[in-house]
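Mods, move this if it's the wrong board.
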Amino acid sequence: MSKEQLEIEFSKRIKESQGIIHKVSRMYCDNEEHRKDLFQEILIQLWKSYQSFRGDSKFSTWMYRVAINVAIQDLRKTKKKRLLFFQTNQFRDTSEEKKSEVESEKLKLMHSAIAKLNKVEKAIVMLHLDEKSNDEIAEIVGITQNYVRVKMNRIKTKLSKTVKKN
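Not the wrong board. Structure tokens:
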């Protein structure tokens, strides 16, 4: 495949799946400018490693894995201790605005609880919320399917306790 064909194919796939990069960027960044930088860094790393994508897994699975790894490396590099998750209204759509204050408060509590999770737990929650199967989550995160189930149960318990405290 020529370089031009490779670029065209890559661009097409990225356009179809760019929501993944946005989700990961939002999950791991609380600052708009930093989020844009992380988005660009993920794109760069995806392009650099695109030729190594063999098609053994779905493109989206591979994309999640690269994006999460880049985000985690970025966290280590900037040495952040706490990340804020869903702090702004960027995740809201117009139907959310119509929800009652009680539901809105519950959502804020849940987002706050998710923000307290470690980076791997956040990745698992994000993938779970994206309705990925345990097999896909295991492949993306690099753990066994059985451990995904164990981690998910522990995360649910952790979130429940955190929400109840508030």
